[in-house]
């Protein structure tokens, strides 16, 4: 089983180089990356193809912004059973088999995604000691689940664009246009009372991914 891998970037050569190196070193069970590029730079796209021997899909001729880029990702993922989605400013810190996440998604069709926990990044996350802890402080509930050798944490807090395995049931929903599209997409997902998101692993695990972007480089989130 090979899980399709889509990497979204917007021209940060240093970030995507580190991200793809970490994927090659640590992420098994995925195919060759398809890079959705929102740099708006044809020469940069040529570099991506040559450097990573990857298929590169431009969002548009000029830089288009986050919601348009996510719509391009959704188009590229059409017809897939699931897709491993990866933003270019994340590195994977330890070995991970995408097939394990796919097994959990297939067995639990109410899950909207299985995401990888990153380090606390925003002020409220650093203050609370973690990403999940900050979401809990806002009143969101998290439930640890374990079946066989698999562990994950279920919630109804949000949909995240951080690295995650996303099933077809989520990919079939249209991505909204305009500002705060990610938040609005998540709210729409959770109008289904049975829907749950998930983070992979256990509460006391170290973060699986590290966010390496120094600032939010995109626009029209």
From TrEMBL:
<protein>
    <recommendedName>
        <fullName>Glycosyl transferase family 2</fullName>
    </recommendedName>
</protein>
<dbReference type="InterPro" id="IPR029044">
    <property type="entry name" value="Nucleotide-diphossugar_trans"/>
</dbReference>
């Amino acid at each position: 089983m090979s899980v399709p891998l889509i990497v979204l970037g917007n021209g940060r050569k240093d970030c995507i180089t580190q991200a793809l190196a970490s994927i090659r070193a640590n992420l098994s069970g995925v195919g060759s990356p398809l890079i959705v590029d929102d740099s708006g730079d044809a020469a940069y796209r040529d570099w991506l193809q040559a450097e990573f021997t990857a298929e590169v899909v431009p969002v548009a001729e000029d830089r288009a912004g986050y919601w348009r880029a996510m719509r391009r990702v959704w188009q590229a993922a059409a017809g897939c059973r699931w897709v491993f989605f990866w933003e270019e400013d994340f590195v994977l810190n330890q070995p991970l088999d995408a097939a394990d996440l796919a097994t959990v998604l297939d067995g639990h069709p109410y899950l909207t995604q299985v995401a990888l926990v990153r380090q606390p990044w925003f002020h409220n996350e650093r203050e609370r000691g973690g990403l999940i802890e900050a979401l809990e402080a806002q009143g969101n509930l998290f439930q640890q689940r374990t079946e066989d050798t698999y562990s994950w944490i279920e919630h109804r807090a949000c949909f995240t664009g951080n690295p995650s395995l996303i099933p077809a049931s989520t990919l079939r929903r249209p991505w909204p246009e305009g500002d705060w599209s990610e938040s609005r997409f998540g709210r729409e997902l959770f109008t289904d009372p049975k829907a749950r998101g998930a983070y992979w692993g256990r509460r006391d695990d170290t973060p699986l991914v590290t966010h390496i972007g120094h600032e939010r480089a995109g626009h029209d989130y």
